[in-house]
Design goal:
Blueprint lengths: L19 E9 L12 H4 L2 H9 L13 H9 L3 E6 L4 E6 L2 H8 L4 E11 L24 H5 L4 H5 L8 E6 L12 H5 L3 E6 L13 H10 L1 E2 L3 E2 L6 E6 L9 H15 L4 E4 L24 H11 L3 E5 L21 E6 L23 E4 L3 E4 L5 E4 L2 H18 L5 H10 L18 H8 L9 E5 L7 E6 L6 E7 L4 E7 L5 E6 L5 E9 L2 E9 L2
Parallel strand pairs: 5-9, 5-10, 6-9, 10-11, 11-12, 12-13
Antiparallel strand pairs: 1-3, 1-4, 2-3, 7-8, 14-15, 16-17, 17-20, 18-19, 18-21, 21-22
């Protein structure tokens, strides 16, 4: 039986009002005559995408099949202007200003859903443009960005040569102003690391004249200025995709995100970074509630989960609502099986603006946190500065995740995500604003290795400096007991203990210590690890 959900008309506006068009979501009941035998995998996806699916045993399914060409022809015959299309959700975003055409569409048997996304001035001008067609690591390489990378254990991956080579990252944002001329990106263009661009808002290739936000986001991953600045994945390749229109906040931006995710999947992207989130809109009847933050309600969150099911790692900003009445994460950060990223400052303290979890159905969010307070970025004026927001902690994580996956490309996206979460400092005791905490990618790297390949334990002391209690984390593949001591500067042992050996990480709680400097010493078999600990009361 065909179910048709009625069109929601915007109030106080006439369909016939001159110069006004409505952007609509048109959902179809099926995909026409398409069957399993209609297409081969190579007809639907790029070789790279197919390879990513095969590596993770992810089959081609109904969501990969294209929309029926007969349905699209019908829309075109009714003079609907098709803006974007979604094969995952079997529908299109279209522009129309004729009441008669909409009435005719409602009579079609293939119609299942019709929603108003907003109204816009009709622009009939042409908006198409032409396509814009190693780093040695030492103690000075990361420079301005050193703290935000060192905090998450990323420098060790860079030093081992993992800088994102061969990894493809799709960046969804509001524009990449001046990213084609700024010095920090010259290596990306010279080495053909910009794979392509597309503007889903204006439907054109050029993304370099719009908002600068995506450019600064890109800098935390791909930026490089010798001796001055280094992003987390300077050798990765990037798709730059504009899905956000900063001049308004309408539901169509979520649908733009959906079709961008489908494109990222089709071209074989490994990672999506999305420094975007949605809670309230210009039209209040589109607003989300906290109850909607269950990963299953909003279309953007369902698309993020589906992208993960296709084998992609999605990194998304948790949001900057921690100080607001809303307070909570926004969509799609509530999505299942993605990395939602909160924010800390340079001292590893939670940023007050970082949005709270959990999801409305009780899942831990954010997933992890990284430096989003005073994050080093490149500005639109070609300078190095700092900025605040989970918009920047998310790409810091996305870029170093690309390096980690590069080192373990035989692993599935969920194996990589799980190792990152397990390496985080609050893994045993997640909280509502940091989630599982700050990850340690050196530890995640060890967790992903076969046990017999790990010869050196990894030690992390967090927080450091500590203001009260602190916790020591150690990972060792040596089959031996682990002992630990905390020694003050006079050589007095103030804490000591032993822990049984385990293949996984061990968390050791230390009691409150007086202000001062201490040495944390951990012995695992024949290996001794030492790290300084500062305590401030």
């Amino acid at each position: 039986m065909r179910v048709l959900l009625a069109l929601l008309f915007l109030p106080l506006l006439s369909w016939s009002q001159e110069g006004i068009g409505y952007k609509l979501w048109i959902g179809f009941s099926d995909k026409g005559s398409i069957t399993n035998s209609t297409y081969s995998a190579s007809d639907l996806l790029s070789e790279r995408s197919i390879a990513r699916r095969e590596k993770q045993n992810i089959p081609i399914d109904y969501t990969d099949y294209p929309i029926s060409s007969d349905y699209l022809t019908t829309l075109k015959n009714l003079n609907f202007e098709i803006l974007n299309r979604s094969k995952w959700f079997n529908g299109v975003i279209a522009l129309q200003s004729s009441t008669n055409a909409i009435d005719s569409l409602l009579q079609m048997n293939f119609m299942q859903r019709l929603d108003t996304l907003g109204y816009f001035a009709v622009d009939t001008s042409s908006r198409y443009a032409s396509k814009f067609d190693g780093i040695v690591i030492d103690e000075n390489t990361h420079a301005a960005a050193k703290n935000q990378i060192e905090m998450i254990g990323g420098i060790s991956l860079h030093a081992q040569g993992y800088q994102g080579q061969g990894m493809h990252i799709a960046v969804f944002d509001s524009g990449f102003k001046n990213a084609n001329t700024i010095d920090a990106f010259s290596h990306l263009h010279a080495n053909n690391q910009i794979l392509g661009t597309w503007d889903y808002v204006d439907r054109e290739f050029s993304v370099y004249e719009d908002n600068y936000h995506g450019m600064s986001v890109l800098s935390t991953m791909g930026g490089y200025l010798e001796g001055e600045f280094l992003g987390t994945a300077p050798k990765a390749s990037y798709w730059l995709l504009r899905t956000e229109d900063v001049s308004s906040e309408t539901l169509i931006e979520e649908y733009n995100w959906v079709v961008a995710a489908e494109f990222a999947d089709s071209v074989g992207a490994d990672i999506i970074n999305s420094s975007l989130g949605y809670t309230t809109f210009d039209y209040p009847w589109h607003d989300h509630s906290y109850a909607d933050m269950d990963g299953k309600t909003t279309i953007i969150s369902r698309a993020a989960t589906l992208a993960s099911r296709k084998g992609i790692i999605v990194c998304n900003s948790a949001g900057n609502s921690g100080n607001s009445n809303w307070k909570y994460i926004g969509a799609p950060s509530d999505a299942d099986s993605i990395l939602s990223v909160g924010s800390v400052n340079a001292m590893r303290e939670v940023s007050s603006f970082s949005s709270y979890g959990p999801t409305s159905d009780g899942r831990v969010k954010p997933s992890v946190s990284a430096q989003g307070g005073n994050t080093a970025i490149i500005t639109q004026s070609n300078t190095i500065a700092t900025s605040n927001g989970t918009s920047f902690s998310s790409p810091v994580i996305a870029g170093i995740t690309a390096c980690l996956w590069q080192a373990h490309y035989d692993k599935s996206n969920m194996q990589i995500i799980n190792a990152i979460i397990q390496s985080a400092h609050l893994y045993e005791y997640p909280d509502e604003q940091l989630g599982f905490g700050i990850p340690n990618y050196a530890l995640a790297n060890a967790l992903l290795l076969d046990v017999e390949d790990v010869s050196t334990p990894t030690l992390e002391v967090y927080p450091n400096p500590a203001y009260s209690d602190t916790r020591v984390y150690v990972y060792s593949a040596n089959e031996s007991e682990i002992s630990y001591r905390v020694i003050d500067l006079q050589g007095k042992v103030v804490v000591k203990g032993e822990m049984p050996w385990t293949y996984s990480r061990i968390g050791i709680d230390l009691p409150s210590l007086k202000s001062g400097v201490y040495v944390v010493e951990v012995k695992a078999g024949d290996t001794t690890l030492v790290e300084r600990l500062s305590v401030i009361q």
